[in-house]
Amino acid sequence: MTIEVFGVQMNLMGLVIGLIFLGILFLFYRVQKSNKLDFTDLITKDGISVSLTKVLQLIGGICATWVIITLTLTGEITEGIFGLYLAYVGAIEGYSKFISAKYGYKALSLKSANALAVDEGDPSSKLSKD
């Protein structure tokens, strides 16, 4: 279904998805500004350095979701493909838990890592005790 806006033909579904995407970005911006959640934790391993595993999981999740949405909109999705997608998404979390348990890894947020560094007297931390 298309609509005409200012003389331009637009796909209504594409317009709705675009507006939802912009709304989600605005929501993320407000949450980040409120200091209640730090989105850098999505790609960092200790709150400071970038985690290759987290970045690759994020990219893989985004690409897989894009494929599923595209196949759904074109009507070409099958139960097998959707099942593989669900297995992949579930395996991301399972693999992360397995690695954390095996190597004793404890995920820290950016704020927690800086607070821990200050408590341990790390001069390279961004925060000070003052």
Number of strands: 2
Main sheet: strand order: 1-2
Helix content: 55-70%
Give the ordered list of helices and strands.
EEHHHH
Secondary structure tally, helices: 4
Number of domains: 2
Strand content: 5-15%
Largest sheet: 2 strands, antiparallel
Question: How far from one another are the termini?
Answer: 60 Å
Q: Which radius of gyration do the C-alpha atoms yield?
A: 21 Å
What can you tell me about this protein's structure?
This protein is mostly helical and 130 residues long. The protein folds into two domains: 37 residues, no CATH class; 86 residues, no CATH class. The protein is 62% helix and 6% strand. The chain has a two-stranded antiparallel ribbon with strand order 1-2. Helix 2 packs antiparallel against helix 3. The radius of gyration is 21 Å and the shape is flat.
Keywords:
130 residues; 2 domains; 4 helices; mainly alpha; two-stranded antiparallel ribbon; flat
In short:
By secondary structure, the chain is mostly helical. Helix content is 62%, strand content 6%. It is built from 4 helices and 2 strands, in the order ββαααα.
